[in-house]
Amino acid sequence: MRRAIALAARALGSTSPNPVVGCVLLDAQGRPAGEGWHHRAGTPHAEVNALRAAAEAGHDIRGGTAVVTLEPCNHTGRTGPCAQALIAAGVGRVVYAVADPTPDATGGAATLAAAGVDVEGGLLAAEAAAGNAAWLTSAALGRPFVLWKYAATLDGRSAAADGTSRWISSAESRADVHRLRAEADAVVVGSGTLRADDPHLAVRGPLLGEGTVTQPLRVVVDTHASVRPGARVLDDAAPTLIAVGEHADTAHLTGADVVRLPRNGTGLDITALLAELHGRGVRSVLLEGGPTLAGAFVAAGAVDRVVGYLAPALLGAGPTALGDAGVATLAKAPRLAVTDVTRLGPDLRITAVPTTATTAPEEN
């Protein structure tokens, strides 16, 4: 199962609106016979890819075992039902990690059992769910999973008093951010970040050499449509969506993909923004916005994971990493559980999740 989880992770950022899934096939003697993973929506699922690999290698998997990270699907969409493919192949046992929570695809386990296949669920469920957190959260909440990433000094400053912010974090941390981008369906920034840094937001560097990177949708939250026509996010390196207020003047953005959203207070309604992205097939969002936009997401209860890159530097002044999040007293502060601390060059990368967030199911 751990091998299947590792296979599934190869397609992070490429399968939405589908989940990432990995599958390992064993023959009747328990020997590895084939493996596969789901590459992208509309292409064969993990089980079918594993069955093809086994057939091409000349392995007989009749009476064997399929080990899958997600319950085999039970419906016909752009591809056929995996439960039926496993039955037709003569697999005798199926072990899966996480049950499929979607009403269309669920029921694969019951279909397999009715056909006489021995079925077991829940193996390494927590590990498999963690690898599929974006899709599972999206399925549960009806909005994309949001990872807020920021870089700051040890005293919590995201820029100096004069506005300079390049580079607070190290080259190693910046390379890691490109990994996060490659694993996300969309990267979101606000108009303040766009004006200050003119970021490109596309995946760059060695990851592109791997040949499997799908560039994320670049999303600019720009209430007043202040983005300049020559901004780097408007090039053709990756698709871009500009979210503006309902009455913003967008005449200068001819040819750009623009969506009008309702306002909530001083900015755009975050819930409406996430609903729009979800409707476009986005299941995971990397929030790279500045303190104002980050505060709006936190205030909306729309941050599912936080990754902070802490650099060993002190500024003592300048903007903080998080702006007003509607927290007036310590008793109302969102609490987080630290899940990982890693050294990246001179920096520390700290990963944490809200303790009250809707998460994937625990292992039985």
Automatic annotation (TrEMBL):
<keyword id="KW-0862">Zinc</keyword>
<feature type="binding site">
    <location>
        <position position="223"/>
    </location>
    <ligand>
        <name>NADP(+)</name>
    </ligand>
</feature>
<dbReference type="Pfam" id="PF01872">
    <property type="entry name" value="RibD_C"/>
</dbReference>
<feature type="binding site">
    <location>
        <position position="165"/>
    </location>
    <ligand>
        <name>substrate</name>
    </ligand>
</feature>
<feature type="binding site">
    <location>
        <begin position="290"/>
        <end position="296"/>
    </location>
    <ligand>
        <name>NADP(+)</name>
    </ligand>
</feature>
<dbReference type="GO" id="GO:0008703">
    <property type="term" value="F:5-amino-6-(5-phosphoribosylamino)uracil reductase activity"/>
</dbReference>
<comment type="similarity">
    <text>In the N-terminal section; belongs to the cytidine and deoxycytidylate deaminase family.</text>
</comment>
<feature type="binding site">
    <location>
        <position position="204"/>
    </location>
    <ligand>
        <name>substrate</name>
    </ligand>
</feature>
<comment type="pathway">
    <text>Cofactor biosynthesis; riboflavin biosynthesis; 5-amino-6-(D-ribitylamino)uracil from GTP: step 3/4.</text>
</comment>
<feature type="domain" description="CMP/dCMP-type deaminase">
    <location>
        <begin position="1"/>
        <end position="120"/>
    </location>
</feature>
<feature type="binding site">
    <location>
        <position position="73"/>
    </location>
    <ligand>
        <name>Zn(2+)</name>
    </ligand>
</feature>
<protein>
    <recommendedName>
        <fullName>Riboflavin biosynthesis protein RibD</fullName>
        <ecNumber>3.5.4.26</ecNumber>
        <ecNumber>1.1.1.193</ecNumber>
    </recommendedName>
</protein>
<feature type="binding site">
    <location>
        <position position="45"/>
    </location>
    <ligand>
        <name>Zn(2+)</name>
    </ligand>
</feature>
<feature type="binding site">
    <location>
        <position position="151"/>
    </location>
    <ligand>
        <name>NADP(+)</name>
    </ligand>
</feature>
<keyword id="KW-0479">Metal-binding</keyword>
<dbReference type="Pfam" id="PF00383">
    <property type="entry name" value="dCMP_cyt_deam_1"/>
</dbReference>
<dbReference type="GO" id="GO:0008835">
    <property type="term" value="F:diaminohydroxyphosphoribosylaminopyrimidine deaminase activity"/>
</dbReference>
<feature type="binding site">
    <location>
        <position position="82"/>
    </location>
    <ligand>
        <name>Zn(2+)</name>
    </ligand>
</feature>
<dbReference type="InterPro" id="IPR050765">
    <property type="entry name" value="Riboflavin_Biosynth_HTPR"/>
</dbReference>
<feature type="binding site">
    <location>
        <position position="201"/>
    </location>
    <ligand>
        <name>substrate</name>
    </ligand>
</feature>
<keyword id="KW-0560">Oxidoreductase</keyword>
<feature type="active site" description="Proton donor">
    <location>
        <position position="47"/>
    </location>
</feature>
<feature type="binding site">
    <location>
        <position position="288"/>
    </location>
    <ligand>
        <name>substrate</name>
    </ligand>
</feature>
<keyword id="KW-0521">NADP</keyword>
<dbReference type="InterPro" id="IPR011549">
    <property type="entry name" value="RibD_C"/>
</dbReference>
<dbReference type="InterPro" id="IPR016192">
    <property type="entry name" value="APOBEC/CMP_deaminase_Zn-bd"/>
</dbReference>
<dbReference type="InterPro" id="IPR024072">
    <property type="entry name" value="DHFR-like_dom_sf"/>
</dbReference>
<dbReference type="InterPro" id="IPR016193">
    <property type="entry name" value="Cytidine_deaminase-like"/>
</dbReference>
<dbReference type="GO" id="GO:0050661">
    <property type="term" value="F:NADP binding"/>
</dbReference>
<feature type="binding site">
    <location>
        <position position="193"/>
    </location>
    <ligand>
        <name>NADP(+)</name>
    </ligand>
</feature>
<dbReference type="InterPro" id="IPR004794">
    <property type="entry name" value="Eubact_RibD"/>
</dbReference>
<comment type="similarity">
    <text>In the C-terminal section; belongs to the HTP reductase family.</text>
</comment>
<feature type="binding site">
    <location>
        <position position="167"/>
    </location>
    <ligand>
        <name>substrate</name>
    </ligand>
</feature>
<dbReference type="InterPro" id="IPR002125">
    <property type="entry name" value="CMP_dCMP_dom"/>
</dbReference>
<comment type="function">
    <text>Converts 2,5-diamino-6-(ribosylamino)-4(3h)-pyrimidinone 5'-phosphate into 5-amino-6-(ribosylamino)-2,4(1h,3h)-pyrimidinedione 5'-phosphate.</text>
</comment>
<keyword id="KW-0686">Riboflavin biosynthesis</keyword>
<comment type="pathway">
    <text>Cofactor biosynthesis; riboflavin biosynthesis; 5-amino-6-(D-ribitylamino)uracil from GTP: step 2/4.</text>
</comment>
<feature type="binding site">
    <location>
        <position position="197"/>
    </location>
    <ligand>
        <name>NADP(+)</name>
    </ligand>
</feature>
<dbReference type="InterPro" id="IPR002734">
    <property type="entry name" value="RibDG_C"/>
</dbReference>
<keyword id="KW-0511">Multifunctional enzyme</keyword>
<dbReference type="GO" id="GO:0008270">
    <property type="term" value="F:zinc ion binding"/>
</dbReference>
<keyword id="KW-0378">Hydrolase</keyword>
